[in-house]
Amino acid sequence: MLKTPVDLLKEAYRILTPEGKAGIIHWRYDETILDGPSMDIRPKPEQCKHWAESAGFHFEKQFDLKPYYYAIVMKK
Q1: Could you read off the pLDDT of 47-70 as tens digits, one per residue?
Q2: Which of 25, 28, 34 is nearest to 52 (CA)?
Q3: From CA 69, how far away is CA 21, in angstroms rounded?
Q4: 75 closest CA partner among 8, 12, 4, 7
């Protein structure tokens, strides 16, 4: 059973083909954005990168999807 973000990312890593990519899209960590989940459950991009790297991924690029989101592309 998947219990943590790293567990989910490890499963994504496992099922991807060699050189496969995974994307993470999340709400920006910004207190001025009142929509979306509360700030205490919004990870910063650095935290998502750390989780993905802990699962074996390599950082490829990051996008700012203003006004609400960011995206990270990770490679197997």
Answers
A1: 999 999 999 999 999 999 999 999
A2: 25
A3: 19
A4: 12
* Block residue for tokens 């991924």: 57
Q: What is the mean pLDDT of residues 14-35?
A: 95
Strand order across the beta sheet in which 58-65 lies: 21-27, 69-75, 58-65
The topology under which CATH files domain 5-75 is Rossmann fold (3.40.50)
**Is the pTM above the cut of 0.70?**
yes
3-state secondary structure 11-72: HHHHHCCCCCEEEEEEECCCCCCCCCCCHHHCCCHHHHHHHHHHCCCEEEEEEEECCCEEEE
Instruction: Determine the average pLDDT of the residues in 10-14.
Output: 97
